[in-house]
Write a structure and sequence with these properties.
By secondary structure, the protein is mostly helical. It is built from five helices and no strands.
């Protein structure tokens, strides 16, 4: 029974992280911490790293803290930490590698999901300022972006 709870907590955390990514992106990154996110939209830097990567580091620290709490006896810390880690890996693969090509992988993906996610992200990046944005999610985007 503990394994079932572990799996449910892991999956629930993974799914909840999509909401957290949307919320953080819309209200924090495009809000009071725009100064950390704007270089991602404007590309006003010469480095491979962006100030925007700070958000990725924040969630990595949260995940590691939950692993530590799991090792300290709070067993829920493990599935919570792994759920955040798994979402972070998925986000990195989809956003940084697939969409923005920070590594030259997955360049030829052309299935319906990959096309929809790319369209949605392209629409998000057409806005260079912090206001008037759309499509703040990452893995689950509105169906309108999947239409031809």
């Amino acid at each position: 029974m503990d394994v079932l709870f572990w799996i449910l907590i892991f999956l629930g955390t993974f799914l909840f992280m999509e909401f957290m990514a949307w919320f953080t992106h819309k209200y924090i990154m495009h809000g009071f911490l725009w100064n950390l996110h704007k270089d991602h939209h404007n590309k006003d830097h010469d480095s491979w790293f962006e100030r925007n990567d700070t958000f990725f580091i924040f969630y990595a620290i949260v995940s590691m803290s939950l692993f530590y709490s799991g090792a300290s006896g709070f067993w829920y810390g493990y599935p919570l930490g792994f759920g955040i880690l798994a979402y972070g890996i998925a986000y990195f693969l989809v956003h940084d590698i697939f969409i923005h090509q920070r590594f030259k992988l997955f360049r030829n993906a052309s299935n319906w999901y990959s096309k929809g996610v790319r369209r949605a992200h392209k629409m998000h990046h057409k806005h260079l300022g912090k206001g008037d944005g759309e499509c703040f999610g990452m893995l689950f985007v509105p169906f309108k972006y999947f239409k031809k």
